[in-house]
């Protein structure tokens, strides 16, 4: 659930002189701002603990009983308050020792007395923008995590529901494969062998999905994956029509990766390239370029292509585009592809020309 952004920006002003607090508040007043005031370090700590909407503290360094450095240090020790931005307000010369002490205790900036009105307002405006930007980012991350969990549950349920009927199909196919009419025809026997191999491979993939859904990413184990062999296995599993040819452009590397994750990525791209190809001579190519820290993989097709306006939309969840064909997608596959790549620090993009085809790229970190 996304939290609505607060309608105001709350600022805590801390100074042991009331006239300074009144002056500072008048200087910073705005339509969407709320102010809390404290005349001591202890009072400031109590206000922060009682109010979780404070986005900025302007903290006087020189106060009796507890100075600003100590207040900041205590705020840093509390996980609930350590992320609140603090600007020290001080009449002390900003020598190197005091600056280092201030930043060590949690300050993010300094203001020197007597305060310059324009400088003070400008700095507070910056921190106000940062505060709302950080809240928006938290909401985006929370929503992405929510979608990820929904997709994980959906994947688990689908894989679980497929496992039993697929096992029954394999058993039936194995029985049919033993019939004399199958064994006596080399061509049919070879075709049955291909079907059985593909169904066993699909079973292994479903078991892997179930195992993957039960584990956290921290428990996943990376392994060496030969991408050439991976593409061969996926191609066999997808049963491309006779008029579509999948080939590799140059050798593909052996990478360190979670095999199932990389398999999902290529399977999404290849299945889409097959599904939407509208040419009588369909061609799909898989290739790679070495980009230093990353491998830049691509899957290229000669299908219908995309309009320029759709090259970003295509990766959005549940976004369905008009391919001018009979096939209709779910709007999930390419979004999953994007998330899987970005989870390990890569990025995705597509280049396309209507009528000529598309090339989907992704960066995969080498280690």
Automatic annotation (TrEMBL):
Q: Does the keyword Nucleotide-binding apply?
A: no
Using the record's annotations, give every residue carrying the modification 4-aspartylphosphate: 60
What GO molecular functions are on record for this protein? kinase activity
Superkingdom, taxonomy of origin = Bacteria
Q: Which UniProt keywords apply?
A: Kinase, Phosphoprotein, Transferase
Major enzyme class: transferase
Q: Which residues form the Histidine kinase domain?
A: 157-367
Ubl conjugation found in the keyword field:
no
Any idea of its EC number? Answer: 2.7.13.3
InterPro entries this protein is in? CheY-like_superfamily, HATPase_C_sf, HATPase_dom, His_kinase_dom, HisK_dim/P_dom, HisK_dim/P_sf, Sig_transdc_His_kin-like_C, Sig_transdc_resp-reg_receiver
Q: Which organism is it from?
A: Chitinophaga qingshengii
Catalytic reaction list: ATP + protein L-histidine = ADP + protein N-phospho-L-histidine
What is the protein name stated in its UniProt record?
A: histidine kinase
Pfam families linked to this entry: HATPase_c, HisKA, Response_reg
What are the residue boundaries of the Response regulatory domain, all occurrences included?
10-128
């Amino acid at each position: 659930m996304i939290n609505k952004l607060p309608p105001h920006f709350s600022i805590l002003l801390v100074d042991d002189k009331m006239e300074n607090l009144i002056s500072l508040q008048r200087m910073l007043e705005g339509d969407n701002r709320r102010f809390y005031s404290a005349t001591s370090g202890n009072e400031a700590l109590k206000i922060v603990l009682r109010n979780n909407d404070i986005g900025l503290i302007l903290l006087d360094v020189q106060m009796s009983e507890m100075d600003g450095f100590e207040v900041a240090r205590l705020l840093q020790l509390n996980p609930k308050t350590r992320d609140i931005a603090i600007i020290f307000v001080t009449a002390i010369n900003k020598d190197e020792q005091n600056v280092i002490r201030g930043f060590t205790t949690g300050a993010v900036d300094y203001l020197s007395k007597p305060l310059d009105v324009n400088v003070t307002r400008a700095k507070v405006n910056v921190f106000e923008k940062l505060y709302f930007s950080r809240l928006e980012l938290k909401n985006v991350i929370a929503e992405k995590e929510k979608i990820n969990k929904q997709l994980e549950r959906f994947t688990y349920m689908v894989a679980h529901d497929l496992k039993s009927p697929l096992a029954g199909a394999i058993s039936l196919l194995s029985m049919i494969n033993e019939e004399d009419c199958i064994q006596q025809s080399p061509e049919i026997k070879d075709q049955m062998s291909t079907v059985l191999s593909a169904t066993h491979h699909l079973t292994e993939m479903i078991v892997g999905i179930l195992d993957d859904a039960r584990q956290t990413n921290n428990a996943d184990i990376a392994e060496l994956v030969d991408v050439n062999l991976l593409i061969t296995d996926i191609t066999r599993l997808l049963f491309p029509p006779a008029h579509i040819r999948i080939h590799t452009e140059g050798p593909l590397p052996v990478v360190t990766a979670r095999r199932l994750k990389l398999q999902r990525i290529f399977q999404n791209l290849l299945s889409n390239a097959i599904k939407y190809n509208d040419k009588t001579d369909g061609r799909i190519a898989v290739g790679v370029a070495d980009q230093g820290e990353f491998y830049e993989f691509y899957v290229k097709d000669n299908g219908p292509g995309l309009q320029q306006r759709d090259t970003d939309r295509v990766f959005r969840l549940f976004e369905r585009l008009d391919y001018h064909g009979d096939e209709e997608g779910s709007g999930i596959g390419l979004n999953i592809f994007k998330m899987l790549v970005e989870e390990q620090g890569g990025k995705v993009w597509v280049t396309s020309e209507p009528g000529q085809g598309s090339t989907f790229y992704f960066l995969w970190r080498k280690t």
